[in-house]
Every structure is written in structure tokens, then in C-alpha cells.
Write a structure and sequence with these properties.
Elements: H1 14-19, E1 23-27, E2 30-35, H2 39-48, E3 51-54, E4 59-64, H3 68-75, E5 88-94, E6 100-110, E7 113-118, H4 123-133, E8 140-143, E9 149-154, H5 158-166, E10 178-183, E11 186-191, E12 200-205, H6 207-219, E13 223-225, H7 227-236, H8 271-280, E14 284-291, E15 302-305, E16 308-318, E17 325-332, E18 341-346, E19 349-356
Parallel strand pairs: 3-13
Antiparallel strand pairs: 1-2, 3-9, 4-7, 4-8, 5-6, 6-7, 9-12, 10-11, 11-12, 14-17, 14-19, 15-16, 15-18, 16-17, 18-19
Helix pairs in contact: 2-7
Length: about 375
């Protein structure tokens, strides 16, 4: 049987990345920049100054209607009830068995309107799932992914850069809040979350507006950053990536993200399974590991104790900010306790490692 070729999509900034000589690679169905000058240089630009990412591949879904709040609360593990407009929530959508559909951000526009930001690789699956579960609720679900381009300006100088270079007033936007503004005759959304552990802003607008923002930032000398350092940055501060630390087979409780699962709210999809996991405990969970020496752990490498496999690496790097070889791993209990000694198998050899907190570098968000 002939295999159907998968069409690789391009963001509205694709030509700009090519012109800058970016190393491009398929990611989540898009041809995306992995790096420009180098992962370490881009990583350090975000940690110490400012960098900009093209995140136009992300998905956006709008939920509107008299039962918008009730419905979003039904599909989301966090609790959006009674939140002020302009607030953002992080959490997951789960299947009935507790497995994760996706992790996402929920923006509260008003009591009757929410804006959901989902992972690029999951757009089709998520939109179908959101629409399917909306049956019986007085809501309209609109996939707005094609409407928006998006850039993320991240780093200690992000606020100053967005204000001075782009002329967008952001200093009064609090952490995990957003504002809807008029710019160039269109409505844009500016939020302050940051998937890097640094202060940062996400700017959503049309393709034309996104291109204009990118060009202004390039002209001002802001470092363009690829998905390579986006991964090293999020990993160092213990933030999960769907497909690695979360999946249909990994629940938020197993991912050590139970703080985002609000069991004291009315029914939501997956509540029963997640409540049972919280009450009874899980058989495995995501933890941090620090390896002795310089060996670099990678996704899928086995974690062993006395020659027996007790887990596997989900993400691993030689941390650019700390110089240590560290990893996040899914390990069986009781090997998840801090200070536990394990070994990581890298090809034919094993390397000693210790269970540590999965935050390898302190976040520097502006509170």
C-alpha cells in the first residue's frame, strides 16, 4: 500500500527564518527553525537578555456561549470558575482514564468566552475532542489556529524590549494575565506567561502583524531563537513537553503535576481516575535525575537499579545554565524518592545518577 505523503506546513515567518540561515526541521507538522547561530548562544540570550521565538505553529481555539465557563471547566483539570477576565490558567485536558489529551493554557476573555492555546502537534485531535465533548452545552467552538501568528519575546529584558521596540504597553500585565489591544487596525492578544522560566510575552496577531513585529525585533538586534533552545530552557525549569512528560498514557498525577488538578470542583472528564490516583498513589512518576560526570542522557534511555530497569528518560541534556548532566525520567516507585541512587544505561555502559528535584534551574518570572 502506498504511503500518503504528509504535507509539511509553514508559518508566516518561514521565509524570514530561511533568510536568516536557520537550520530548519519538521516539527509538529511544520517546517520550523531549530537554531540560528547555535542552541547554547540562543539559550543564553534568553537567560541573560532577550530572545524571540516563532510560535505561530501553536493552536488556538475559542469557546463562546452562555455555558462557556461551565463547559471549559468540564474539559479542563484546573478550575476557571469565578476568575477575573484577563486571567490565564495552565492545566490539562484528560481522557476518562486520566491519560492526557493535551496540556494547554486557558485565557478567560469573559464569563461567556474563553481562548484555549493548544500544542501544535495536537491541533486536529484536540479540536475534534473539544467539539465532540461540547455536545449538550450551549457553546460554539471555533478553531482559530489559521487566524493567528504568534511570537514569544522571552528573557529578563523582554518587558523593556516589547515596550520600546514594539510600542506595546505591557508593564502592567501581571504574570499569567493577558490584554486585548488594538494595533494597526486589528485586535491583538498579549499575554505574560513564558515557557522558558524567564519573564516573557506572547503576542498573537494576523500573519501580516506578526511579520511586522518580527521585522522590528530583528532590526533592533533581538536574538532569533529556535526550538532547540526552547526545549533546553523549558527543561531546565522542570516544565513538561507533551509527548515526553505527558501523553495519552501519562496522567497529570504521574507527571508530578497534581497541583493543577482541582478535585474540589464539579465533575470534569477524568476526575474519577485522577481522584483514585491521588488517593491510592501512583505506581510511577516523573522525577529529576542528576548524573555523575559528563555522560548525556537522552529520551528513551533505561533507568536501572541492580541491573533491573525501573524507568526511562523522558528528556535529558547537559544543562547549558548549570553545566550538569541532568534528566527528567519516568520511574517506578519506590525509586522516585529524593536522594535515591540509580543508573542510566547509555548504550552498553551504565552511569550513576541520583534522584533530585526536577527543577534544575530557578525560574525568574516577574511576580
Amino acid at each position: 500500500m502506498e504511503q500518503k505523503e504528509v504535507e509539511i506546513k509553514e508559518t508566516c515567518l518561514h521565509g524570514r527564518h530561511k533568510d536568516l540561515g536557520a537550520q530548519m526541521s519538521p516539527f509538529a507538522g511544520y517546517d520550523m527553525p531549530i537554531q540560528y547561530k547555535g542552541i547554547a548562544e540562543e539559550h543564553n540570550a534568553v537567560r541573560h537578555e532577550v530572545g524571540v521565538f516563532d510560535v505561530s505553529h501553536m493552536g488556538e481555539v475559542r469557546v463562546k456561549g452562555p455555558e462557556a465557563e461551565k463547559y471549559v471547566n468540564h474539559i479542563f483539570v484546573n478550575d476557571v470558575r469565578g476568575a477575573a477576565p484577563g486571567q490565564i490558567f495552565y492545566g490539562m485536558m484528560c481522557y476518562e482514564n486520566g491519560g492526557t489529551v493535551d496540556d494547554l493554557l486557558v485565557y478567560k476573555v469573559s464569563d461567556n468566552e474563553f481562548f484555549l492555546v493548544i500544542n501544535a502537534a495536537n491541533i486536529d485531535k484536540d479540536v475534534a475532542w473539544i467539539k465532540q465533548n461540547a455536545e449538550g452545552y450551549d457553546v460554539v467552538v471555533i478553531d482559530e489556529s489559521p487566524r493567528y501568528g504568534e511570537v514569544a519575546v522571552q528573557g529578563p529584558k523582554a518587558e523593556e524590549t516589547v515596550e520600546k521596540v514594539l510600542g506595546i504597553p505591557v508593564k502592567d500585565i501581571k504574570f499569567y494575565n493577558f490584554a486585548t489591544l488594538e494595533r494597526d487596525g486589528e485586535e491583538i492578544i498579549v499575554s505574560r506567561t513564558g515557557y522558558t522560566g524567564e519573564d516573557g510575552f506572547e503576542i498573537y496577531g494576523s500573519d501580516a502583524y506578526t511579520q511586522k513585529v518580527w521585522d522590528a525585533l530583528m532590526e533592533a538586534g533581538v536574538a532569533p531563537c529556535g526550538l532547540g533552545c526552547r526545549d533546553t530552557l523549558r527543561f531546565e525549569v522542570g516544565l513538561p513537553l507533551y509527548g515526553d512528560e505527558l501523553s495519552a498514557d501519562i496522567t497529570p498525577i504521574e507527571a508530578s503535576l497534581s497541583m493543577f488538578v482541582k478535585l474540589d470542583k464539579p465533575e470534569f472528564i477524568g476526575k474519577e481516575a485522577l481522584a483514585a490516583q491521588k488517593a491510592e498513589g501512583v505506581k510511577r512518576r516523573i522525577i529529576g535525575l542528576e548524573l555523575d560526570g559528563n555522560a548525556i542522557p537522552r529520551h528513551g534511555y533505561p533507568v536501572e537499579v541492580d541491573g533491573k530497569q525501573v524507568g526511562e528518560i523522558t528528556t535529558g541534556y547537559r544543562s547549558i545554565s548549570t553545566g550538569k548532566s541532568v534528566a527528567m525520567a519516568m520511574v517506578d516507585k519506590p525509586y522516585d524518592k529524593l536522594g535515591t541512587k540509580v543508573e542510566v544505561r547509555i548504550r552498553k555502559k551504565t552511569f550513576p545518577a541520583t534522584v533530585v528535584k526536577k527543577k534544575f534551574y530557578d525560574k525568574n518570572y516577574k511576580k
